[in-house]
Amino acid sequence: MIEMHDVWKVYPNGIEALRGVNITIDTGEFVYVVGPSGAGKSSFIKLMYREEKPTSGVVLINGVNVKRVRDWKIPHLRRKIGVVFQDYKLLPHMSAYDNVAFALEAVEVPTKQIQPRVEEALELVGLSDRMKALPSQLSGGEQQRVSIARAIVNNPGFIIADEPTGNLDPENSWDIMYLLEEINMRGTTVVMATHNKEIVNTMRQRVIAIEQGIVVRDEIGGEYGYED
């Protein structure tokens, strides 16, 4: 599903964020991306949904070379990708329902399909009773649930989560992780960048560790491997 072949990412200021990365992530995997701050995790994640393009090398998503995707086709590529951010990125003037519906409207899903799909997504994340609430009326954990509902409403093949528990307390963090685990068990691939040592060490999934732009460890059932 996701392949990187000798991928380098060098920014205009000369910083080498990724250096010669070779990775394959298969359908249905749950993968943690870990490493010190500034190691290249965010660049690694952003390449997967074409927020950034590799300087050299090849990034394939379902066999599609993302570097060759024209800008106007990026929304079509992202229909198959759900993205969850640390800061939720909800539209503040829209209700939970409308934030999720907007993801469908943006890719021109037929109107008659929107309501049942939005309601199903919000039910899955446990927010059926909070559909009309604005982000300001929701807790941090609830806002992240809306973000996840928005990410899954298009039935994506995989979800990319960039520090999804970074702004949450431990209880809400675990709630979000159990939700992502449930989504993964339904067949969706999950790739998650995190600094949360306890979650990684407890859930024991595949761990890809990046240091100074290089993949230094890739192991099934791995540990976090860094001090807090």
TrEMBL record:
Membrane topology note: Peripheral membrane protein
InterPro entries: AAA+_ATPase, ABC_transporter-like_ATP-bd, ABC_transporter-like_CS, ABC_transpr_LolD-like, Cell_div_FtsE, P-loop_NTPase
Protein name as annotated: Cell division ATP-binding protein FtsE
Localization per Swiss-Prot or TrEMBL: Cell membrane
Function according to Swiss-Prot or TrEMBL: Part of the ABC transporter FtsEX involved in cellular division.
GO biological process, one term: cell division
GO MF terms held by the record: ATP binding; ATP hydrolysis activity; transmembrane transporter activity
Summary of subunit composition and partner proteins: Homodimer. Forms a membrane-associated complex with FtsX.
CC annotations in GO: plasma membrane
Family, as annotated: Belongs to the ABC transporter superfamily.
SMART domains reported in the protein's UniProt record: AAA
Gene name of this polypeptide: ftsE
UniProt KW keywords: ATP-binding, Cell cycle, Cell division, Cell membrane, Membrane, Nucleotide-binding, Transport
NCBIfam families per record: FtsE
PANTHER family, sorted: CELL DIVISION ATP-BINDING PROTEIN FTSE, IMPORT ATP-BINDING PROTEIN
Residue ranges of domain ABC transporter in the record: 2-227
